[in-house]
What we know:
The structure holds 2 protein chains of 2 kinds.
Chain A: E1 8-12, H1 18-23, E2 29-33, H2 44-51, E3 56-59, H3 73-86, E4 91-94, E5 97-100, E6 103-109, H4 115-130, E7 136-139, H5 154-165, E8 168-172, H6 173-183, H7 187-193, E9 199-205, E10 208-210, E11 213-215, H8 224-234, E12 241-245, H9 253-269
Chain B: H1 3-25, H2 36-57, H3 59-65, H4 69-79, H5 88-101
Helix pairs in contact in B: 2-5
Amino acid sequence: MAGIKDLGVGIGWRSEIDLTVERLPGVDFVEVVAENLHIGHLPESVTLLLERGVPVLPHAVSLSLGSADQVDLHRVEHLGAVAEAVGAPMVSDHVCFVRAGGLDSGHLMPVPRTRDALDVLVANVKLAQRNLPVPLALENVAALLEWPDGELSEGQFLAELVERTDCWLLVDVANLYANARNIGTDPERFLDEIPLERLAYVHVAGGEQNGDIYHDTHAHAVLPEVLEVLDELCSRVAPPGVLLERDDNYPSDTEIAGELAAIRAVVNKHRG
Amino acid sequence: MDENSLSSARERLAARQTELLNALLANGPAPAGFDEQRLGVERLALLSKRRGIVRMLGPAVADELGDRFRPLFDAYAAEHPRRAGSRAREDAASFAEWCRVSGELSEKRKPRWKFWQSN
C-alpha cells in the first residue's frame, strides 16, 4: 500500500503530553484522536510534528461501525476531513459498537461474533469507506464480556471482514492479551487466522490486573506479557508500525522513552 | 447481500445490542446467555469511565462534593444513562445541575451586582 510501508515506532499524541511527544527521540509517527481535533484549529504541536515530516494518523473512537444502526456520515466526514488536514495515508476506528437503542455506552463494546453482526458491520464499513478519502484500518477491541452464541472466532470474524471489505487491520496486542486473560481468546490462534498481509500497524498499551480481570487502562505500564504478544506477532510478520498508547496517569519522559525503546527492541529482534 | 436480509439482520442485532446496553447502563434485565458476574464487571467499568470523564471535565464540582462525588455521580448515572448523540460536556453539566437541584451543590455563584453597571 502506498505511503504506509514503514511507519516505525510511534506514540499516541495527546495534548497532555504534547511537549513530551515533541522532544522524545525516536518518535517516527503519531496518532491523533480524530474526535478531539477541529479542522482549521490543529494544535500547534501537531502542526510542528507535521512540519518535521512526522506522519500523523487519525484514529477514531466514535464511528460505532458495529452498531445495528446506519453509520453516522457526519462522523465519517469529520474523520476524512482530519485525514486531509494532516495529509494522513490512512485512518482507523474499531470493530465495535458504541451506541444502541438511543444509549451511548461511552466505550468500545464488542460485537457479537455472529453472521448477522458481520453482515451489518460489512455494510457499515463499506459505506464509511466510500465516504473516506484514504484507506480505513480496523482495530480489535478489549472485551470484558463475551456474547453468547458466537459463530466465529475473533480471528475468523476479522479475516472475513477484511475479505469482504478490503479494509486494513490495526492489531492491538494489549487487547489480545486482555482478551486472553478475560475471555479466553488464544492470541496465537488469532494471529494464525487473520490475514497478516493486511496489517496496517500495531497498538501497544499498558493495563492493570484487578482480581481476576485485566483492565486495558492505557494508564499503567506496558506489561512484559503484552510485549510477548508483540514478539509473537513480529515472529510472523514485520509490522509496518508499532504505536504506544498512553491516555492517562502520564509518567515521566524517561519512562515513556523506555517503553518506546522496549517496543523497538522487540521489533528489531526480528529484523536481523 | 440483498437489502431485505440486511435490514432483518440490522433489526435482530439492534434488539440484542439494545438489550445489552439497557442492562449495562439503565438497570435493565440481564440478557440471556451472558455471565452475570461479567455483566457486573462491565457495568462498573463503564460507570467508572464515565465518572472519570465527568470528574476531568468538572474538577470544581468534584472538589466541592469531595467524598460525596462518587456516590452522587453513581446515583445520577443510574437515573440518566447517556443518550446517543449527547456530549461528555453536557453530561458533566447535567450532573452538576442535578446536584444543585437536589441541594447537594451550592448555587452557581452569580456575578456580583456592581453599582456602576446598574443602569
